[in-house]
Structure formats: C-alpha cells, structure tokens
Give the backbone structure.
Amino acid sequence: MYSIGDYCGFITNRARTDAFINALERAVKPGCVVLDIGAGMGFFAIKAALLGARKVYAIEYNDAIQLGQEFAKINGVADKVEFIHDISTKVDLPERADVIISDLRGMMPLHSFHIPSIIDARKRFLADDGVLIGQRDTFYACVVETVENYDKYIEELFGTHYGVDMGISKKYLVNQWTQGVSTPEDFLTEPQPFFTLDYTIIEDPNISAEINFVVTRKGTARGFNVWFEAAIAEGLGFANAPGNPPLPYRNPFFPFENKVDVEVGDVITINIDANLVDETYIWRWKTKVFGQGQREIIKASFNQSTFYGDLYAPKRLQKQASAYIPTINDDGEIESFILSQMNGQNTLETISNRLMEKFPVKFHTLKEALGKVGKTAQKFS
C-alpha cells in the first residue's frame, strides 16, 4: 500500500505528471465522462472535473481515497466526482467513460493486477470512441557491469559475517531482481527494446521475449537492467532509463548467476518470461554468452527464476498440489461461521457475541471477537 507521502511524490514528479495532465487536457471535453482507476487521492479525477467533465468516477482500493473527497470539496467539484473505495474489477458503473486514465505501475508496468485491470476496464467501461491514458509501455534492457548492483547486493550478503558462513544464500539472491543503480557508463551493450505493452489491444498479462546483445566494450557482465518508455498519449510520455531525470519508478536489476568477463564482439542472448501467478509475477531469465559471436564457444549459461529465489515450505507447496485432500482447520471454521452470520440482519456485535459462544477458547472478550468479525466484514461484506 502506498502512503500519503508516496502519492504526493508521484504527483509532484513533473516528468510524470506533466505528461498525464497534458493528455487529460487534450482528451477531456465539456460534458464527457471520465474514469480514474487507481485514483489514489483523486488528483487526476479532480483535474478532469476542473477541465469540464460532466461526471468523474474515481476508483481506489487504498484508504487514501478518503482524502480525495475533501480535495474535491475544496476545489468545488464534489458534485462531479464520485469516489469508489474498491478494486475496479469488482465495480459496476451506470455508464461508459469517454476517457479512462490510470497509472497502476509499481516499480515497473508488470505489477500485480495492473494489466488485468486495464483489460477489464477497456472492455466494460470504455466508450466505443473512448480514449485511454496511457497507451503503451515499451521495455528496454541492457547488460551492465554495475558493481553496486552485484558486488554489494549479492557478494557481500552471501559472505561470512561475524564468523557465520552465509554462502548458501547466494542461490536465492541470484534468483531475485532488485532495484538497479546504473548509469550509461555501466553499459556493456547497446540498450535493446524487447516488448511493448499496448493497452489499447492487450489481452494477455504475461510476456515472453528473446533479447540479443553484442558487447561493445570489454568488461565484467554482472546482469542486466530493465526500464520502460511510456507513451501516455501520442507525443507525450516519459522514460525511466538510467541517466534520465528520476521518476517514481525504478530500474530493476536482474543478476547473472555468476559474473562473466566479456570482450568486444561477444554475443549475449537472454530469453525472458514474466507470468502473473495469483497477485505476483514470476520472472524467468535464461542467459547464454557466446565468445565473439560464435555459437560453439559458450562462455557462460544460466537458468534463473524468481521462483527459485523464494523460500517455499514443503507443507505449503504440498497444499497446492492437485492431489492434495484438504480438511478445514480451526481458522477456517471460524471464518465460515462468521460468514454464515453475515446475512444482512445481524450486527457485528451480535455476530461477535455468537462467535464467543461458539469458540470460547479462541475468544475471551468482546473486543477480541469484534476485531476478528470486523476484519472479515471489511473483506467480504
């Protein structure tokens, strides 16, 4: 969840916000309907109303949306902006929108339910001749030798500390991406575009691509940085490439399993996949380094994935197997009982008292029971 400070940081970043505001000024016509997905504190929604929109729907799951209602009053558009505290895929609207604006990226565009939310909104909410803001994100990658990314993040962490050998942690660290800190001086290859997310037509939240690099200077390859170039509207956008002015987004660094000394003319091929599983993307990158571009001279070969970088308890994995036969546990019994009482007639206090009677060992006070019932009600009511 973003904090109020995070939202303010997004808004005050001129490179990002100027592009969105300019796109809104182009798209919003007097009397039109606007939808803001992931509205945060409602900044773009309020701006759309000030630009003349007849109706603006602002959807945000974070509690920060409560501030939006106050901002709308202060700016004199409370009658035009409807704030909806929910996830857009769970919302129904009484009309379609002429303009949909959203910025659901995390560190990069492949973030949680960003793409499924855009696909859903485009199909259910966008008018036939409606406008999407933004339109495309194009990914770029470049092989780098940044010492800070690899030596400090990986080698220092899997060493020996206070006499304790931490070497086993390397196999997990090299299968995780982290925030990259690179400059163009760290590049060992030319940056290559490798995938474009076109939100006007996209249907699949997953990506798969092959990237081929030619080494342009001698050095030690430690991994590759990824960034994106955003097209918010035609002729409007920004990029978070290394060396550009800072944006709220970051440059992920994907480490190689081991450092590789490379020469000018070496070829590095990376097959990269990202698949959305539940709420998280599983990344996989397979790397081969060929000496002087000759396929028979393989200097290095790695097969890495964020799946290998996470710790999975055997019991937790077993419970996801297709042959596993589940039986409900105590927590499930409690949750089931609370849900059975949420029939539109019982107050939270009534349900809590019944919960104490049903599970006296688990809940000793009304406060404890109310806490549990309240959380369940927030999630499911």
Notes: The mean pLDDT is 92. The chain has three domains: 4-134, 137-313, 330-380. Residues 330-380 form one domain.
